[in-house]
Amino acid sequence: MSSETFSRSDATAQRKIKAFRCGIAPLREKGRTEKRSLSIFLIFLSSLTVAACRQGVERPRVPSEVNEVVANVGENIDQERYEQIYNESSDLWKKDVTLEQSNEVFKTLRAKLGKVESRTLHSATEQQNSGGALKGHVYILTYQTRFEQGDGMETFTLIENNGRWLLARYFVNSTALK
Q1: Which helix (H) or strand (E) holds 99?
Q2: In angstroms, rounded to a whole number, what is the distance separating the alpha carbons of residues 65 and 9?
């Protein structure tokens, strides 16, 4: 009788083990599937992060003619040739301020900020406007600028006129101006 009982309990134990294995196997498969899905998701998320970071690193391509105008205006500011800036600017610039007002603004900037020590392109936006004050082909370039007496942001707005790029607006934002 004891051998029979042993066989029955042995058979019961084997059934329990078999049932246990059957219950675990699907859980293992489910776990593997979840791990696989998580791995795929993490790879996808990593790819998106890398792509997003790359976008921030890439700088927009600015035409050399536009860069030359910014460099010339910067050099004229540095050399205090404010009248030349006014004379070579767009009609929009001349419409907004007189020569005297333009000169005074540049003199004030020089007195409060000093000369430009470095200028790094922060953003460049190309626009094709069909109306408004900035009608036509426009570039708006913003620079992170270090002046002798503080840091700031310079914004050069250039407008194309008869194939030439001209200064339409110039703006400096700096806490050193306050």
Answers
A1: helix 99-113
A2: 92
pLDDT tens sequence for the chain (178 residues): 545 445 555 665 565 555 555 555 555 556 666 666 655 555 555 554 545 444 444 456 899 999 999 999 999 999 999 999 999 999 999 999 999 999 999 999 999 999 999 999 999 999 999 999 999 999 999 999 999 999 999 999 999 999 999 999 999 999 999 8
pTM for the model stands at 0.67
Helices 64-78 & 99-113 angle (0-180, nearest 10): 80
| Cβ-contact 152, 113 below 8 angstroms | yes
d(CA 80, CA 33): 70
Amino acid 51 reads A
Contact 153, 140 (CB under 8 A): no
Cα separation, 147 vs 110, in Å, equals: 9
